[in-house]
Specification:
222 residues; mainly alpha; 11 helices; globular
Length: 222
């Protein structure tokens, strides 16, 4: 219930165009609320009463923290370019300009981080049913199991919405590119095998985050 409440709270703030402009620090509010998801990952592993579920919660939280750092720094880069933490300023400065065309590699890093953050294939190590016997949620069933996955899929839909808004402007473009991103998620799931967990963490800390730090330094200098 905590995980579903956190995601629905984000949708309450950002799900309607009339509400998206009310605050000037929406990006910071997004950071504070969405990062509570790590505690949800730990608590659902601990509350299962199983040491295997507890270890699965640790795995999921470590993966989430690793790729949250990348998402946060990409957000900060966008905020620096727009001189504001407001979604309104982002919409004003990016009207008619797709950040996707300006920063394609940053967009690629963002998409990979979203896949890992949402535990989607080929990065679904916290829920690899065929290898991990469902990982952290092995002791859950019925309504509790449904709440866990309703919260996760609501989080996936929200990240697709934010991706379309940041990289593809606003208006009707959001729905078009949102559908394309949804197709991309399904295509990746059907096309690529699951990677090893250690390679996923190495890719975050020795690959993507180094590039994002370098780009962040370049933005600050110039």
């Amino acid at each position: 219930m905590l995980g579903l409440f956190i995601v629905l709270l984000l949708w309450r703030f950002y799900g309607f165009w009339g509400l998206i402009y009310y605050r000037f620090f929406r990006f910071l509010l997004f950071f504070c609320i969405s990062r509570l998801r790590v505690y949800f990952l730990l608590l659902r592993g601990w509350s299962s009463g199983s040491k295997y579920g507890f270890l699965g919660g640790y795995r999921a939280s470590a993966q989430s923290i690793s790729y949250e750092v990348i998402l946060v720094f990409i957000f900060i880069i966008i905020c620096i370019l727009n001189f504001s933490y407001s979604f309104y300023r982002l919409d004003f400065y990016s009207f008619g300009i797709f950040y996707f065309y300006l920063f394609p590699i940053v967009f690629f890093c963002w998409i990979l981080s979203c896949l890992a953050e949402c535990n989607r294939s080929p990065f679904d190590f916290s829920e690899g049913e065929s290898e991990l016997v469902s990982g952290f949620n092995i002791e859950f069933g019925g309504g509790l199991f449904s709440l866990i996955f309703i919260g996760e899929y609501a989080s996936i839909l929200f990240l697709r919405f934010i991706t379309s808004f940041i990289f593809f402007c606003r208006g009707f473009n959001i729905y078009i590119f949102g559908l394309l991103i949804s197709f991309f998620y399904l295509w990746v799931r059907a096309s690529f095998p699951r990677l090893r967990y250690d390679k996923l963490i190495i890719a975050a800390w020795k690959g993507l985050i180094i590039y994002i730090f370098g780009y962040f330094y370049f933005i600050l200098m110039f």
